[in-house]
Amino acid sequence: MKFTVYQDSRQGARPYNQDRLAYSYSKQALLLVIADGMGGHRHGELAAQLAVKTLTDAFQTLAVPTLPDPAQFLTEYIQLTHTAIDHLMIAEDLLEAPRTTIVAAIVQDDMLYCAHVGDSRLYLFRDQKLLFRTEDHSLVQMLHRRGQISEEEMLTHPERHKIYNCLGGNITPQIELAPPQSLEYGDMLLLCTDGLWSALSDETIGETLHDGMVSETIPLLLSDAESLSGKDSDNVSAIGLQWGGRPDDSLLAISTITMPLDATTTIINPLTHQPRDSDAAAVADLTDDEIEKAIAEIQNALKRTQRS
After folding, report:
1. Of residues 294, 216, 268, the one with CA closest to residue 21
2. Angle, to 10 degrees, between the axis of helix 202-209 and the axis of helix 214-229?
3. Beta-carbon neighbour count of residue 130 at 10 Å?
4. In this structure, how many other beta carbons lie within 10 angstroms of the beta carbon of residue 121?
5. What is the pLDDT of residues 243-283, one digit of tens each?
């Protein structure tokens, strides 16, 4: 495999960042995942971090060097994340279940497999044209699908930020698995949270994404979304990938040709922004170390349950 990938996340105007994102690859398979912790519920960052850790940990274990069934992997481990969130709520004695959206993609054998829950999106571009985009699990998207509101009305609808499908909570998530898509050299992928796409049109996203290397265009997209949203800017996160790389980004392109069959590499985007002092009371009670410890304990418990 050969590809160029770049990921980044911004806090925006929010008191802290609840987005989590990562990519992981073996010799013949690649995982991309973004989770957006839901700010309307406590500890959304826990749910998002658990989602990313569950998928990347499973990928590192199973993709050696390929997954037997990428579509099944996505549905099984996204569902497992939902179960793990419930376990986390009980283990940490939380008042309510943390909640998160998720969008995840597997690339294997030049095929793209994608699954999502909520309104974090995946875009697939070819020759600067949008070939595919996930459909949000949101109230306004449902109303538009029923013909009750127009695309223009979706942009200003008072309930445009409400989603009906997520990980965590009492309702079993409906995991939407997209039909597999074949990839061609030069295809562009973008995974992003609603902080980005709510500020920029699909056309603007496509034009910007194709205007340079992903290491340049992803930061530009995030900056544009922050600037346009101003004081209302949400957390903004994105992963950009070009399949096959580009002639002018050979230094950034990743090639797995010499990678051992049993090796994997995972890059989890670091949190570079800390909560603002004035908003300290709004921050989750658990420290990063406590979150990691809780996640590890829950994952070990789930693994024991799966083996029994």
Report:
1. 268
2. 150
3. 14
4. 24
5. 986 655 566 789 999 999 999 999 998 865 445 443 434 34
Whether 159 and 140 have beta carbons less than 8 Å apart is answered as: yes
Distance CA 54, CA 48 (A): 10
Between CA 60 and CA 190 the distance in angstroms is: 22
Q: Locate 36 and state its tokens.
A: 């957006």
Furthest CA-CA distance within the chain: 54
Distance CA 173, CA 300 (A): 23
For the residues 175-203, what does the mean pLDDT come to?
A: 96
For tokens 């070819």, name the residue: 126
How far from chain centre, in Å, is Cα 224?
19
φ/ψ bin of 101: left (φ > 0), alpha (ψ from -120 to 50), beta (otherwise):
beta
Asked if omega into 158 is within 30° of 0 (cis), the reply is no
Closest CA to 33 of 217, 234, 191: 191
The token pair that represents 272 in the structure block: 């570079």
pTM of the model: 0.89
Q: What is the 3-state secondary structure (H, E, C) of 13-55?
A: CCCCCCEEEEEEEECCEEEEEEEEECCCCCCHHHHHHHHHHHH
Q: What string of H, E and C letters represents the secondary structure of 245-278? A: CCHHHCCCCEECCCCCCCCEEEEECCCCCCCCHH
Q: How many beta carbons lie within 10 A of that of residue 258, not counting itself?
A: 6
Q: Which two tokens stand for residue 166?
A: 């997520």
Residues 163, 139: contact at Cβ < 8 Å? yes
